[in-house]
Amino acid sequence: MKAVSSFLVIQLLIYSLQAQDFVKVKAGEEPKKAIPASVQYLYPKFQTGKVIFLNGNTAAAPLNYNLLLGEIHFINNINDTLSLANEQLLKEIFIGAQRFLFDPKYGYLLTESSSQLVIQLGIKQELRVSNVERLGGYQQSLGATSTKTYSTFANGNSSVQKLDSKGDVVFSKNTIYYFVDQNNRCYKASKSSLHKIFPKYKQQIDGRLQEAEIDFQNEKDLKNIIQFCRQFT
């Protein structure tokens, strides 16, 4: 029941993001200043959180996840908003009841609340550049149907820089799915990843994938194959 309830909460968070899937930043503006905090952050407000380190130490603070920067932010005792550092030393983070893991390759992933599961779903939410609108006469944006002319834009560790674009920049909310094994190793959601996690059960997995016509971009389908794979130990 705990696994089911945590999946439901994750689903509610995803639905809440759909209220504003796109946001536009005017040419020359800095995204992390121009995009409202209500859009940048996963939760409407900072929540009671706990950081657990690999050495067993813990720290408590108000926490929130920044979709634009791909960072977990905390509020310190003088009310400054800062990002967690030295992520390689982190075991897990709880924001309210929601558990996050940090993977060096994929960043912060929202997972189920238990770390004892043989496999579970990892979800990464992010704000990414989806379109740059060219400027027409009188410096007016030509709209989202214009030719895409992206400039470099990197997420993570406060690396978002001012976009020197000749037009408005459209950011969209994006969801990427991963599998997380019982050792907190993270894999992109795919058949080959399931083979890596369960090398002795490739035939059974392939049969189930074919039978259920699993779409690795569909959350419901991923829950289906995850539940099937939990019989393997």
Q: Helix count, per DSSP?
A: 6
Kindly estimate the percentage of residues that lie in beta strands according to DSSP: 25-35%
Query: Reading side by side through the largest sheet, how are the strands ordered?
Result: 5-4-3-2-6-7-8
**Overall average residue pLDDT:** 84
Largest beta-sheet details: 7 strands, antiparallel
Helix content: 10-25%
Short note summarizing the structure:
The chain is α+β, with helices and mostly antiparallel strands and 233 residues long. Helix content is 23%, strand content 32%. The radius of gyration is 20 Å and the shape is flat.
Task: Describe the protein's architecture and organization.
The protein has six helices and eleven strands. It is flat and about 55 Å long. The protein folds into two domains: 2-188, no CATH class; 190-233, no CATH class. Helix 5 (202-212) runs antiparallel to helix 6. The strands form two sheets. A seven-stranded antiparallel β-sheet has the order 5-4-3-2-6-7-8. Strands 1, 9, 10 and 11 form a four-stranded antiparallel β-sheet that branches. Helix content is 23%, strand content 32%. The longest helix is centred in the N-terminal third of the chain and has 16 residues, at 2-17. Strand 2 and strand 3 form a beta hairpin. The chain is α+β, with helices and mostly antiparallel strands.
